[in-house]
Structure formats: C-alpha cells, structure tokens
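Re: Re: ligand-bound prediction request (bumping)

Still looking for help on this. To restate: I need the protein modeled with adenosine-5'-triphosphate bound, output as structure tokens. Inputs repeated here so nobody has to scroll up.
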Amino acid sequence: MDHPADAPAAPSAADFIREIITEDLRTGKHNGRVHTRFPPEPNGYLHVGHAKSICLNFGVAAEFAGLCNLRYDDTNPTKEDVEYVESIEEDVRWLGFDWGDRKFYASDYFERLYQYAEQLVRDGKAYVDDLSADQIRTYRGTLTEPGRNSPYRDRPVEESLDLFRRMRAGEFPDGTYVLRAKIDMASPNINMRDPTLYRIRHAAHHRTGDAWCIYPTYDYAHPISDALEGITHSLCTLEFEDHRPLYDWVIEHTHPPYRPRQIEFARLNLNYTVMSKRKLLQLVEQRLVSGWDDPRMPTLAGIRRRGFTPEAVRDFCTRIGMAKKENVVDVALLEHTVREDLNRRALRALAVLRPLKVVIENYPEGREEHVEATNNPEDAAAGTRRLPFSRELVIERDDFMEQPPKKFFRLAPGAEVRLRYGYILKCERVIKDGSGAITELRCTYDPESLSGQTAARRVKGTIHWVSARHARDAEVRLYDRLFQSPDPGEGDRDPITDINPRSLERLTGCKIEPGLADAPAGTRFQFERLGYFCVDPDSRPGAPVFNRTVTLKDTWAKIAGRQGEKVEK
Ligand code: ATP
Ligand code: MG
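Reply:
Sorry for the wait, this slipped through. Here it is.
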C-alpha cells in the first residue's frame, strides 16, 4: 500500500528512527500504519529521560498521522503503586501529549499472556523448571562459556502443563518453579539461553489484587502487549538491543495478531544528574529531598515545580536528537533551553533578595509617585506597569560596597547609579550599627534624571530596587545542582556521597514589588538581574514562596561560544 498523499511530511530533522518509519510507509509495511506506545513501569515518577521517550513516541505518531498508546508496564506487583500511575498521567499531559482513549495496562493482558504461555508449552517451546534462581544462574554459563541444559528441560509436555496450571492455582511457594522458554542454552546471546517467562510471586497487584500469584517477565509480556495493541514500531532504549532476538522469538512463536518491530535508541544521560528511578526513590526515602517533586529532582514533577516549561523540555528533546550510541548531555544545555524560553515569555519584575535600606534625603517625606516599567522587552504586547516610588527603598546588599574595586559600577560612597526605570541615585552616607554592620544608606536623587526622559543623563550602572513602604515580603528558595560531581556515583560509589550540601538556600524577608504577592502557584517571572523564578505551591495568601528556576548566567552559551558554535541570543 502506498503512503497516503495527505499524510504529513516527515520533519526536517529526520533521525534514523524517522527514516525507518518513512521507509516502512513507502514500502507499505504494517499496512501504512504508524502506532507507537510509551510504556512506563509505575514504580516511580517520570524524569527528563522519560521525556525523551515520550516526545519520541508521541511525536513520531503525530508527525506520521499515527497513534501512540500509554501503556503501564505493570508486571512487577511488589514495586508498583497507584500514586505513580496518577503522577505519570499528569506528567505526560503536562508535557503536552494525549493518549486519547488508549490507556492500557500490561496487567489487562494477564489472562491472554497466560494462554499464550500454555500454547508455548503445548508446542514444546516452553517448560516448567524446578531449578532454583541460583542454580539457573550457574547453569546459564557466561559470555565465553555456553550454558548447560536444565535436567528438567525435556520433561514431558503434559507434566509441564500440569505444573504450570498448578503454579497458577497457587499450589507452590515463591521460587519453587519457573516457566522457561526452550530456546538454546549454547546461544552466544545469554538472553536466549532459555529465559524465564513466568515466576511465582504471592503478592497482591495494585490492579489485579490476588487474582494472580504468577507474573510474567518483561521480556515475555512486552512483545505480546505490543502485538495485542497493534504497535508497529516499539521504540526502546539501547539496553534492550540484546533482548531483541528474544522479542522476535516470542512474537514468532506465539503468533499474535500483529508483528511489531523493536528499534533501540540511546537513553538520555545528563551530567550532574542521577536518573534511575531506583536511586531517585532512595533520595526520597532517605529524605535527602522533600519528595519526588522537590525542585532539585530531575523528575518532571520536580522541574515543573522548579519552573521549567513543557515547551522548553520538548525543545530540549528535539535539540539532543536521536543517537544510536550512549552519550552524556550537558545539563547546562537543558538550563540554556529553559532560559531561552523564559526570556521570551516571562514577565519582568523587581525583587530584592537580601535587602539594604536606602533613604533618599532630598525626596519629600510622604510623597509617592509611579514610574513606568516594561513587562517584557521581548514581547511588546506584554505592555507596561506602574511601580510605586517613594523616599525609602530597599536595594540588594551586594549592590553596595564601601570600598569598591575598580569597575564596580554599582553603589559606593559618593558614587552614582541608576535605579531601574527610575532616577539616578547618589550615596551620601553609610549608617552602621554598634557592631559596624551597615544598616542603611543615606542618599540623594537627581529629580531631572528620570529614566526614559530624553534629556536624562547616563551613568554606568543600573540596579534594581523596591519601594520599602510598598514592598511585600516573600521567601525565595535558591537551588544549585543536587550533585556536585559530573558523574554522581561514578564507579561503585554511592551517588549520595556526591550530594551537594549547598543545593538549597532559603531566603526569608525578601522584598518583592506589590503586584507579585498574590500570583498563583506556577506563575513565572524574571526578577531583573537575578534570574527566573516561579511561584511555589507552598505559598500562602500574604506569604508567597518563589523558586529560582535558573540564574541569568548562561554557562552553556559560554561553552558553546568557546567551541565556536552558534548561540542564539
Ligand atoms: P529507570 O532506569 O530510570 O528506572 P526505566 O527504563 O526502568 O527507567 P521505565 O518506566 O521502564 O523506566 O521506562 C519507560 C520508557 O522510558 C521505556 O521505554 C524506557 O526505555 C524509557 N526511558 C527510561 N529512561 C530513559 C532515558 N534516560 N532516556 C530515554 N528513554 C528512557
Ligand atoms: Mg524499566
């Protein structure tokens, strides 16, 4: 069948997967259908690595006028939980994808998987083995030595069938028997040395309850689940490459209605980041983070709370592309992508994180005026707002130095600086307390210097500020990388030993411009000169909490610039 003329063209950045699909459509394989699936195991929250897989599976389906299923790969009853199921759906939707009415569970196929397994036994392609897990390992051989046949490998079909049925009926304790495929104990591919298809596990499943006490392995359940759903291209990460012959074997010998094809791609690895659910669970359980959605976590729930946008995450997944070889992506590229997106969209605001009081001695007491501030220089439609200005302000402590080095263009005794959107301010005197700590600055302003006026003078530095009387209080949480090593847990080290002890700094008593105090959770701003910030769900009326999403300093732009790459500004 020909590729239908009205199907969307393949995207310009065709990778090897999209090339394969284009070719399959051209040759009429799979009757011109494209059907993918995203198959998370509900044993933890999704992370940015999963985002790569989600963007690929749902993206490919959309580009080729196909479909993508959400399928829970829930074959392991002891580690799975409904909490995870719910978080996964929220995260996939947040990324901007929709599975329509195609939400499936591998556990929905338990009966059919079992029937296929009985068929394998009857066909002489599977047998029940009495060997223990340890014995099976010993018999399996090594990369250089072939394995040995189990003494039970050639037991009569009827005996295997009877034992398999009794395994299902719950007659045997865990670990007494397994069902194994009868393939080839001398295969150079260890996955083909009579792999286990079913184990006995007397454990309640979060969906099927106590209906089952035998559970299929991933290698057995996955290809059949794909086939039952009519999946055409089963996209998975490289560690499954050596399992592909087994995937094909299962399809070949169970004769399901469809023949999906498995294609592997490189998983996303990020430096300074731990991305295995097992290790992330450890961080949560040991309370090294506040939860799965701690803004330092690489989970989608965490980066969402941190203020990352779904657009930026999708853009990042496009930029990293689809490789066939493992690599490590610089986390600075992710931060750069977020920064670029927020630069386009975030409203600007003035906020002072570590306030220092300023009194403008020549500004009349009780007077108040408004200056006009630009909401987003990247977006004319965002308009302007009016900021209150008065005799007492707060500025950032480190925007003042009593003994400034050369090229310090901020405030110092006798020096002038421009207040953002406002006047030129001159520092006249420094007030200190008994211990010598600076408590306030006495300043004057130049009434003829309002920003934006044609005749306004120019000075070198500009600093941000908030009118003290109008400012509202906020808590601000500053984050740094959770791990201080580029490869946490390198070698056999416990990654926890690489945790950055200064990954969270909480500042209270920060001063924000009045309009920000009631912004709903999730609202993102650029605090001018400080970075991008997002309102945290911990906020209460009158007590807003902000997370710093990223700083303004772009280390990726620096790296890319050094390597002579083009950096969009
Ligand atoms: P982890 O190793 O983090 O526990 P997993 O592979 O066990 O992840 P699954 O729930 O089985 O997690 O993954 C669902 C899908 O997401 C699979 O197809 C898997 O290949 C893919 N995936 C998981 N991690 C990554 C990653 N880092 N990069 C790309 N795809 C990934
Ligand atoms: Mg897995």
